[in-house]
């Protein structure tokens, strides 16, 4: 999603809206420095596990309903995808209590991130732009600026909405970020599961 290089992975990384993903657990186990911020981290591991059990059948049904919205290259079918996601969430859950103690999972939310230091890279996947029907433009621009406040570089993926169309907030966000003195690049990435979701936004200080 973010075309992360070995050099990127050596830096201090902030994952915004990481939820029950395994990135933090897996990179931390390899000696990387990652902090994840998400509102769900106010819940215990047991509560998150219960919620995962509730939503897994819903996720499976939704994917089956909209199977043509996705490209089945990385995953052969819905079953393979659900197995992969379930395995990622298990890795997260195994790491969660330890990660909380180590300060790697912090409760917090955009548009104002809690102060937890400064990062080389702030990443946000499957939240901004994708859920443009639920999150308004002011939320988007405040969130992007806040990710830039706490990092040298922010990357956001994908740039399409849930219908797979380019988000209507992308161009206005680019304008506001340029005006605020940031350089923005839209970069093609190697990962594409949702149709049309093959680009990330990269924002850097100029
Ligand atoms: C669709 S999930 C994406 C999880 C992960 N980033 C991924 O790509 O698999 C969206 C995540 O955003 C989190 N979220 C919702 N509102 C948020 C906010 N205002 N600030 C930060 N995260 C938020 C949710 O709790 C959830 O974990």
Automatic annotation (TrEMBL):
Domain of life the protein comes from: Bacteria
Identification of the protein by name: SAM-dependent methyltransferase
GO MF annotations in UniProt: methyltransferase activity
GO biological process, one term: methylation
Alphabetically ordered keywords of this record: Methyltransferase, Transferase
Organism (species): Marinobacter confluentis
Keyword match Transferase: yes
Keyword Transferase: yes
């Amino acid at each position: 999603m973010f075309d992360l290089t070995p050099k990127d992975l050596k830096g201090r990384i902030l994952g915004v809206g990481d939820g029950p993903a395994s990135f933090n657990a897996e990179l931390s186990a390899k000696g990387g420095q990652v902090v994840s911020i998400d509102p769900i981290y106010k819940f215990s591991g047991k509560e998150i596990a219960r919620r995962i059990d509730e939503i897994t059948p819903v996720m499976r049904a939704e994917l089956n309903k909209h199977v043509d919205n996705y490209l089945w290259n990385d995953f052969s079918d819905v079953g393979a995808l659900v197995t992969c996601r379930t395995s990622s969430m298990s890795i997260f859950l195994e790491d969660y209590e330890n990660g909380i103690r180590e300060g790697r999972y912090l409760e917090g939310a955009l548009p104002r991130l809690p102060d937890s230091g400064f990062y080389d890279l702030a990443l946000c996947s499957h939240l901004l732009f994708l859920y443009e029907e639920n999150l308004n433009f002011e939320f988007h621009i405040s969130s992007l600026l806040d990710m830039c406040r706490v990092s040298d570089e922010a990357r956001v993926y994908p740039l399409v909405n849930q219908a797979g169309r380019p988000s209507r907030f992308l161009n206005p966000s680019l304008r506001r970020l340029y005006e605020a003195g940031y350089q923005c690049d839209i970069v093609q990435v190697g990962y594409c599961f949702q149709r049309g979701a093959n680009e990330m936004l990269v924002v850097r200080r100029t």
